[in-house]
Design goal:
- This is N-acetylglucosamine/diacetylchitobiose ABC transporter substrate-binding protein.
- This protein has 487 residues and is α/β, with parallel strands linked by helices.
- 38% of the residues lie in helices and 11% in strands.
- It contains 19 helices and 10 strands.
- Strands 1, 2, 3, 4, 5, 6, 7, 8, 9 and 10 form a 10-stranded mixed beta sheet that branches.
Length: 487
């Protein structure tokens, strides 16, 4: 996935900004992230202090506002996922042009945690990390154990393009708040901007003489039409079923209101037993019971399920906007790639059709114990320039955190559809925070052990809800985990 990102997902938790206020400022476009192993052992040492090998501070100038040491090596480790690595390599070249005495040590891997966990333990992490993918490190744990540098110096630095404008003033609404957990420090820079939802082929939908369903009865009717023509209604990343929340969570918000999602994020007792959760779980389970899910889906990974979908074997797939780039080689030219906000239950839903999940994705971090923290932040400052943003959008079909960078770019079908979905949503944009605050709970427990088992037919909705509530309660009671709440 791109970030699986969700690539990470508006009230931004501990930022002290109300969800409604943030939503009003957050109608911008863009994943996240995939399963993770526990990172608790990796962060046992805690503490944000430096080590003896810290690079000496350079001279601050108009062109070097962060005071980067112009002879100190900078190391950058990128997640090698749906967005590829070319955009980052291009940004590295700019860094090296600006600091000609420096050679950036750049690498890309899909195994972020297993590659970097030993280095965090040793106090020798890289200077900049794209913390994404199946082995994403648990962001809540990293913050709670003081493993990350506060990015406020970057945000308060002059922007790359305009010295009279701070970096923070060039970002899309909600990006800064997403990187906050407790108070003012900003620990994460979400570089991509992701639209999550139900992705489909407009050509396939037209072939069924159907429109995108707004109620669940309409969804079942469309899936039945597809089934009669030999096409499954749905598929998903069966091996990584935490992709299901990309459409399921905003559906829960639509049916029950944002307060249901807030309660879930806050780990409140019985939050998962809300009638809206029950209704949505039962709706998804009905897809399985009626045979509308592509046969063999529980055994497919994200690439396999996306390929089957692109080949017309299934009509709908829950995903993030990185899917357009990640599946570019298998999506036919006349596919008519489109995304929609999730289908609701009926007219009794609390929020209107169009309610969607959109947020920052592809989380970049600068470790507190990195040798060259200023260099890591400067690389991000370069990436948040208009030119680098345009380069990213052109190459990977997704927007960035930079609020602009689309002038002169022809939007691809998926990107254009994502913009239209956000326009339709207006203020009705939700941003669940579980995937940021409690990665292991979200992916391994809720995703794999809960939703994955239910959609494979091994748990009923009631059993899945009971199991997931148990997982949430365990996390809430675990004093070794730092807990976060919407303010």
């Amino acid at each position: 996935m791109g970030s699986t990102s969700a690539q990470n997902p508006e009230n931004n938790g501990s930022a002290g900004v109300g969800r409604r206020d943030l939503i009003k400022r957050s109608a911008a476009l863009g994943l996240i992230s995939v399963p993770t192993m526990s990172f608790l052992s990796a962060c046992a040492s805690g503490g944000g202090g430096g080590n003896g090998d810290k690079a000496k501070e350079g001279t601050k100038t108009a062109k070097n506002p962060l005071g980067v040491n112009d002879t100190a090596q900078m190391e950058f480790v990128l997640f090698d996922g749906g967005f590829g690595k070319e955009y980052a390599e291009d940004a590295v070249k700019i860094y090296e042009q600006n600091f000609p005495k420096v050679s950036v040590k750049f690498s890309a891997t899909q195994k972020i945690q297993s590659t970097l966990q030993p280095r965090f333990n040793q106090g020798t992490p890289p200077d900049l990390i794209d913390n994404s993918g199946a082995e994403q490190m648990d962001m809540g744990v990293l913050v709670g154990k003081d493993q990350l540098a506060d990015l406020t110096p970057l945000l308060d630095a002059p922007s790359y393009d305009d010295p009279n404008k701070k970096v923070r003033d060039t970002l899309r609404p909600g990006i800064v708040e997403m990187g906050q957990f407790d108070g003012d420090p900003v620990w994460i820079m979400y570089y991509a901007y992701t639209v999550y939802g139900v992705w489909y082929s407009q050509k396939a939908l037209d072939s069924l003489d159907a429109t995108y369903p707004e109620t669940w009865d309409e969804m079942l009717a469309v899936c039945e039409k597809a089934k009669k023509k030999g096409m499954a209604g749905w598929t998903y990343a069966g091996k990584y079923p935490y992709y299901l929340p990309f459409s399921l969570y905003p559906m829960i918000g639509k049916v029950g209101g944002t307060e249901v999602l807030d309660a879930i994020d806050n780990l409140e007792p019985n939050a998962w037993k809300h009638p809206a959760v029950k209704a949505c779980f039962e709706a998804y389970y009905e897809l399985y019971k009626k045979g509308y899910v592509l046969k063999g889906t529980p055994g497919l990974d994200h690439i396999q399920s996306q390929t089957a979908w692109a080949e017309g074997k299934a009509l709908f797939i829950p995903n993030g906007s990185w899917v357009e780039n990640e599946s570019a080689k298998v999506i036919p030219a006349d596919f008519g790639l489109a995304v929609s906000a999730p289908t609701g239950i009926d007219s009794s839903d609390k929020m209107p059709f169009g309610t969607i999940w959109a947020s920052g994705g592809e989380p970049f971090i600068v470790p507190a114990k990195a040798k060259n923290t200023a260099g890591g932040m400067e690389q991000l400052r370069v990436m948040l320039s208009e030119a680098s943003s345009k380069n990213f959008t052109s190459k990977v079909k997704s927007l960035t955190a930079y609020n602009g960078g689309t002038d002169g770019i022809t939007l691809t079908p998926g990107l254009k559809s994502g913009v239209a979905a956000l326009d339709k949503a207006g203020e009705n944009v939700v941003n669940p925070r579980l995937q940021d605050w409690y990665v292991q709970l979200q992916k391994e427990k809720i995703g794999v052990s809960g939703l994955g088992e239910m959609m494979a037919g091994r748990l009923t909705p009631a059993e899945a809800i009971k199991k997931i509530q148990g997982f949430a309660d365990e996390t809430a009671k675990d004093t070794s985990i730092k807990h976060y709440k919407h303010q």
